[in-house]
Specification:
54% strand; 111 residues; four-stranded antiparallel β-sheet; mainly beta
Length: 111
Amino acid sequence: GIDGRWFTSGSLVGSNEGLHECKPRCVAFEPAIGHGVRSLRLEREGEGERLWVGTHGDGLRTYTRTPGTPWQAAPPTLRREHGLPNDIVLALSRVDPGGPLWIGTGRGVAR
């Protein structure tokens, strides 16, 4: 089962146990992410998708896939050493399509 706090984006669920895809049964595709997932943002990219994952202690991770393929870790992974105010990513937002991704952390906002 999926324990603890969880976040959803479509058929994706992030929790203290990692990332799961649920259709209809939940299966972990990235079981260990820092100390858990705190935010998700799913975006379309041409024919594919990009999943932004805010973690509790491991910064911002990204995953991509094209139709019919599994999720793959993709650059960029952003952490404090790359300029984030903090490695706890609590919120993800994009005001305008194609605009910057706003990243809310435990110590401020970055873009």
